[in-house]
Design brief:
The structure is a homodimer. Chain A is α+β, with helices and mostly antiparallel strands. Chain A has 8 helices and 4 strands; from the N terminus they run αααααββααββα. Chain A has a two-stranded antiparallel sheet with strand order 1-2. In chain A, a hairpin with a 7-residue loop joins strand 1 and strand 2. The structure holds a DNA duplex.
DNA sequence: CGGTATCCCATTTGATACTG
DNA sequence: CAGTATCAAATGGGATACCG
């Protein structure tokens, strides 16, 4: 099977690789969150090749993660702006940065996320139950939804009957 | 500048692309969360080429995201198990799946995350302040930590002075 | 079972030059 | 400013065969 087939399956995690799986894309989004709006600024800040940047921006616009609008102040300029969808990525970006800082950067703290109003650090992103309790990996499980493909459903059932510790390890 | 240089900078978000940026890696982790432990099972479930899988597993072990242990039941078999670091990715995976389900899969619900004990759906992953309030993009900002590289620090300062809406758009 | 080695091929990147 | 066009080079995936 080829990569593409897996990604086209009904798994949302697979589909998300379209976005964050592409090299540079996460960095482009970071820039957008940092306030970068213009093609040339993305290029300069990231040092990305112009053709690659062009393709990435197009795709992000296609996916509705960036909005391409003509600047109001300078009619010749174009601005790439965050959308509701990309703004909704904030918990992911914060979570990724926190996780990376903890497990990949080994104590280095290059970036911290803080609440703008108070300056206080954002607590770790966590999985919580409806009542707010924090949940560990073993407390959580995936179940197939109505649109799951039959293969995945079968796998879930096998996994559940085979062992209780699907998550934990 | 080449891609590698950017990623080697002190940005945790950049470093994280080493993990989730590689094609297949997210899928391998998904499999591990689903209980897959053996080389041949990863291969079969994902349809990934063996050489690629080999490289991915090695890297994940290198990064301490998988632990390679000899099976206790069958001495010849090898098991790849989740580690504390990879288990700590749960909020990210849940968040990504939720986000993808909402913005990429357009109403399709192939997978749902539920609390194992109650079967109730996991609420959306969110950024919260220390007191538990949910924060929006505009409420959050990044600040350079002690180990930030000077360039990023300068950019933050420029961004802050230039506009109040670094995040919002 | 758990890989490694090899080959071929497609894609993609980066650099650069050019355009409206 | 905001791209497009082109090209050489590197990378990286897939398939397959082989090995302890």
């Amino acid at each position: 099977m080829t990569q593409e087939n897996v990604f086209k399956c009904n798994c949302p995690l697979a589909r998300v690789t379209e976005v964050i799986g592409e090299p540079w894309t996460l960095m482009v989004l970071r820039e957008a969150f940092l306030g970068t709006r213009h093609f040339n600024d993305f290029e300069r800040e990231l040092g990305i090749a112009r053709n690659v940047l062009s393709v990435r921006l197009k795709k992000l616009v296609d996916l509705d993660l960036l909005e391409r609008v003509r600047s109001e102040t300078d009619r010749r300029a174009v601005e790439y702006r965050l959308t509701d969808a990309s703004r909704d990525l904030l918990p992911i970006l914060v979570g990724l940065a926190q996780w990376s800082g903890k497990w990949l950067c080994e104590g280095h703290s290059a970036t911290r996320f803080v609440e703008r109003a108070t300056g206080r650090e954002i607590p770790r992103i966590a999985v919580r139950a409806v009542d707010g309790r924090e949940l560990a990996a073993r407390d959580v499980t995936m179940v197939p939804g109505p649109d799951a493909n039959p293969e995945l459903v079968a796998r879930f059932e096998r996994a559940v009957t085979a062992a209780g510790d699907v998550q934990g390890g």
